[in-house]
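Possible race condition, two jobs.
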Amino acid sequence: MSLRPFLTIARHTGAAFAVVMAGTLALPAVSVAKPTHEEAMKMKNPGESDDAAANRLNDEGKALVRKKSYVEALAKFQAALELFPLANAIFNVSLMHYTLGELEQAFPYLEQTLRAPLTTEQRDLVLKYRADVLEKLKNSHKDILVQSNPPGAAVQVNGVAMPYAAPTRVLVPYGTADLTFSYPGFESKSVVIQSSPTNPPKDVAARLKREDPMAAVMVRCPRGSDVFIDGTMKGFDVVRDRLLAGAHTVRCGKGAENEAFERPVFVQLNKPNNFDFSGIKK
């Protein structure tokens, strides 16, 4: 692919699909701090909707591309995506990573662009960039399909968060790769892959287990006290039980050296929940 400063091709969803043809451009890889959502919100004009701001930031990014200010352009395109998922901006993010020599970062955005309703010309162009990325990385990486049950799990490859959730295709480096899947309300799952160019990695389908909403609890009351939790008697002196995470009330009954009393407790998942009231005397 030959280098051309800026090329506009067929239109998509009302916005020009702007392309930097940078296949032979040799730029050093750089580390770019991706704008946070809060930072992107500060870029909006007063009264401007999220989608209008995203389109404006995308256009500002394309203007920076014309000036060959690729790092600044990438930040504009990323900020646009924090506000609204423009297919045009997704593609432009991939092209800036590609232009800056960040081929691993470019790949997931190219994959996501292919999910948009592209024209034939647009799809062919995205596929051309995708094929070029895979060709350049063929000695160090292989792309695989990752899926999750439930669908939509966030994916990390060797601790690096992928920008789009499963199902999607990700680049796996040869050697040892750790894929981590996470979804709210489910336990995270890690899959370790060993691969090489002669033993390429296979697609991964991860089934996640629902988190147990219950946690182990130990309640110790003064000697001789009956123990109530949320109004239900559980035993005497020391009680071990499993409770839902959240707020509960413990009541220690009258004992040899104490009057009855109540205490609020808060049960947490994956943490010790030992509530010792044995030293209270009234």
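Job #2 (started ~2 s after job #1):
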Amino acid sequence: MKPNYGFAKRQRELAKKQKKEEKKLRKQAEEPTQGEAAETPEAAQVKAAEPGTPQSI
């Protein structure tokens, strides 16, 4: 019997997509527990450098 490579590839793609979605959900679940207080100084600098943000003089 001839192997169905297209089916195997689709199954791998679906598994990869599901794993990626689970990882995304895990990260979203962790995010609220850390809160704004855990923000690093580097992240604060990046926020300040974004266009459209008011900068204090």
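Residues 28 and 34 are 11 Å apart (CA to CA).
Logs attached separately.
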